[in-house]
Fold each of these.
Amino acid sequence: EEKKSLNFLEQIVEEDLASGKHGGRVLTRFPPEPNGYLHIGHAKSICLNFGLAAKYGGQTNLRFDDTNPEKEETEYVESIKADVKWLGFNWTNDQELYASDYFETLYQFAVELIKKGLAYVDDQPADMIAAQKGNPNFAGEDSPYRYRPIAENVDLFARMRAGEFPDGAKVLRAKIDMAHPNMHMRDPLMYRIKHAHHHRTGDAWCIYPMYDFAHGQSDSYEEITHSICTLEFDVHRPLYDWFIEKLNIFPSQQYEFARLNLTNTVMSKRRLLQLVQEGLVSGWDDPRMPTISGLRRRGFTPASVRNFCEKIGIGKRENLIDVSVLDFCVREDLNKTATRVMAVLDPLKVVITNYPEGKTEELSIENNPEDTESGSRLVPFSREIYIERDDFMEEPMKKFFRLGPGLMVRLKGAYIIKCDDFVKDEFGNITELHCSYIENSRSGEDTSGVSVKGVIHWVSVAHAHKAEVRLYDRLLILEDASQVGDDFKKFLNPDSLTVLSEVFIEPSLKEAKIGTNYQFMRKGYFCLDTDSTPENLVFNRTVGLKDSFKK
Ligand code: ATP
Ligand code: MG
Ligand code: MG
């Protein structure tokens, strides 16, 4: 195998290890905000953070960035843990951390900055503060509260914490530079008042730290060596460094990489939440969603998602990855592992007129030609079978190697049959084929000397089980949703879900388990859906056998 060159983060880690920068230690973190379910973009960050640490003998913290009480919920914490585990990454109890556990520490950090004359309480409303920041070409305007005495700031901040003031009445700001060319350095907010219940700290706090003050200080507190985030945070880095320098605490370092963008979908939790709340999908785990739980329910394997993250690589430039790459990765994995079975999605009945009535044969069919260990199973065959409607043409075109008047085809694992006749109803729809079989053409012991080009799948009518099958297509008809912002809902694909309610499956599938993948011969990869019951089996198509998506 060709040796892959290092990505830029691996290069940085190797340089740091060589120079002994953090005492030869690598500690990364994956820092989700528990305000929604994880998506495939998060998977990229998880694989990166856990993968990088593992490669260099380091560790990774799972830190919940739960500093924003209104949007965060325990349900999301639980789903995030399940998804990270499912992807194949583990952490110890010591490595499961919550930024909300640092509220007291962060508060003390803020007091320290106030005492150093580096933070002040501002009584102005948020819109006024924003207006005074000006624009990058002009210096901003000082707040009238900027030069408040330190003692007054200490007192007011304590009273903010004590709940004396309503929401929005005051904020704590860093005192940096109102003329700084980087707008994030123009006296940014550190704390706001929010009388809101927090999913972990309850009502203990009514002031909450802003992202910029919480994140870097949490990294530093945990002594994270490499704090990896997406590119849009590069403008926050000077502030990240400023707080650490002024507090003189552990010098974590922030690095930025390009986020994952995928075609024909949306990825931000805010937008995914809209789809859920407005009932445009069945939930966070709707198999059309780009969430990890949606992919899992759809039949993606952890390996396929990890391989995808590996394949797209880590870079510094934003790009848009075609969702067909994700399909490719799951197809590649399932081809190796999925049991081949037969299911007829659009059934047409065939009567094999010269086959004895009431007779059943158990035919042995291999489970997976790609896996010699996978063995075989018995599939019942009898006089009446279902085949796919489109495997018959009344007036076959050239090179149609399936059934038509007088044409022959092989039934997978069974016999060669010839179409002698067909039956139409009063509307001209074909309702039944009459075929004859060649008795000595049984697969594996064929002495007929007849050769046919086509092989089709089938299910015995007497032994078939009925199931529901759900086929999926792209969530959006628009390739690049970043162009349309909140208008993305105008581009929902009306054909993203097709439900087939009369599918006939071979009997072995009655024992299908959630989490097992199957190849329905010639139809794609499928798995049992969580809506399935023993009485009403439901299968999802994970992906077709070929890339058939039309742009
Ligand atoms: P969203 O906008 O979807 O809510 P977020 O960045 O606000 O994303 P967080 O929970 O804060 O969500 O993300 C946790 C980690 O996952 C962060 O380090 C973030 O940079 C990373 N991440 C989020 N989205 C992507 C993406 N599309 N590609 C790569 N990494 C991502
Ligand atoms: Mg975030
Ligand atoms: Mg977010």
Note: The chain is about 25% helix and 25% strand.
Amino acid sequence: MILITGGAGYIGAHVALELMQQGDDVLILDNLCNSYRSTLDRIAALSGRRPGFIQGDVRNRGLLDTVFADYPIDAVVHCAGLKAVGESVREPLRYYDTNVGGTVTLCQAMAHAGVFNLLFSSSATVYGDCATMPIDETCATGQPTNPYGQSKLMAENVMQSMVCSDERWSVGLLRYFNPIGAHKSGLLGEAPTSTPNNLLPYLLQVASGQRAALSVFGRDYDTPDGTGVRDYIHVVDLAEGHVKALDALRTQRGVQIWNLGTGLGYSVLEVVRAFEKVSGVQVPLVFEGRRAGDIARCWANPEKALNELGWSARRSLDRMLADAWRWECHLHQEEATTLVS
Ligand code: NAD
Ligand code: UFG
């Protein structure tokens, strides 16, 4: 059985679905601080099975000890965490407590229970403002410009030290680039509980009429059209990467680091134009100054994951945007139905 912390969230839910579709038993632990219980129904509808669920906090050692005692868990995917960059600047202690403290508590409980296979949701943000593109795993980790990024790097360092001290561990640090998109059914996707910070969820809310315009942060970067360039990856490709990485963990020891990206960079304006083409909906734009802490360019060299895991991202930007739009329309329709009934 695989324990997914934060499994009711955007990425964790897609990982849960992918694992269940290939026959694994999944237990989700989530405190639902940024997700909804209804996500479990969505996973059940798509997989034909219901994942186990415990509503609880990853920082609660007593609860974790009970969970490991009660279930035959042999690996953990640790997605639980806080991820809003701006909020992390305002509330750094909360971010360090959850993202670093939560990881320490989880690792302690795992070691106590004799479970040593762990996949961690890390981020390309740990590379900081890298001078050369694409970024491979040998690039030095940089100086993340906000507490969120710092907390991810600190959590990575905690696990690196832990593995050096105890050779039973097998830890995979998955450095995600920019996950977007949704399940192709349109029944599972990102459901922000507050104003979105990231490009795609904000753009979707503008396109569906919930917000007036998309702010484009900075048009004077050293990029072809002056807007920020990122490596957008379909969330289902990302989830498939977790499945491959979990398989690899079972036959290895130590720490492995894998970039999960496509190797392609798209600017903000390229994403907007591609979305307009795919959806047929115009997105009003407002050009604003650069967002504090943003970098100009960031895309992956994904070769290590290909060579070591046999994994590569297969879904195009158009596909990511079409799937995300289908999900947004579905959510909208669901909300309208709930209001009517
Ligand atoms: P999300 O907010 O949708 O999911 C995180 C889940 O963790 C939520 O369901 C939330 O309720 C839960 N959670 C938070 N704190 C918890 C706690 N103390 N105990 C138990 N559950 C808790 O975010 P996501 O986009 O699915 O991201 C998952 C992970 O991937 C996070 O760790 C995030 O930092 C990392 N990551 C995300 C991105 C991205 O762009 N989405 C990029 C890089 C890394
Ligand atoms: N952007 C806008 N308008 C918006 C939101 C974003 O123009 O309303 C721009 C940003 O300036 C940037 C690009 O769109 O150029 C992507 O921004 P996101 O906020 O979507 O993503 P980031 O690259 O800033 O960060 C994301 C996650 C981090 C993760 C990182 C990994 O938020 O958690 O990807 O690359 F670490």
Note: The pocket of nicotinamide-adenine-dinucleotide (ligand 1) is lined by residues 5-6, 8-12, 30-35, 57-59, 79-83, 98, 102, 121, 123, 176, 178-179, 198 (CB under 6 Å).
